[in-house]
Sequence to fold (197 residues):
Amino acid sequence: VFNVELPADVLSERLFVEENGVVSISAADYSRKKETESIKIDVIDEFGYEGASLRFGDPVGPRQNASRAAPNAEYDFYCFGRGMVDVYTYVLPTFPLYDNPSFPGHESSGQGTRYGVMIDEGHIITPGFSGTEYGYDWYAAVMRNASVKKSTLYIDKPGRHTIRINCGTPGMVLQKIVIDFGGMGRSWLGPQPTKLH
Fold:
């Protein structure tokens, strides 16, 4: 039986907490966000697996490089384990739109929707969706209403941490994040949010 006692300061906060080997986060329920004049981060109500989603900038806004300085949303969480973890991001399957006359079109460009994922001040992973419009990956993502991407990151110790999603391609819509410590099972929608309150 795993019956750990949470610290008092954690109990007083609205953190996402590891439960049965996973931390599941609803994208619209962020802890903090950092915007710029050209890239705003907005909640889209009544959309996505958890009832609301988060859009990173206008789809025709300026491209970002998903670096540490890019506009971002942060989510605080508490875990009981450490080591390598798989982070699953559920994003709306979209093609990038740029104000660029040389852009040849989404079917043949090979350019995909990109964003950054990092835990604390660790390494940044930049997953993306680059399936062709009529390919199987695109078909499956549209049927699911999400492109689910896996990134492997490192957590150095148990306790409180922050996961950050950095803007890359503007207009990217994030639905949920799941951090898998080894307990994630197969499901269509992923585990329910594991928020403390």
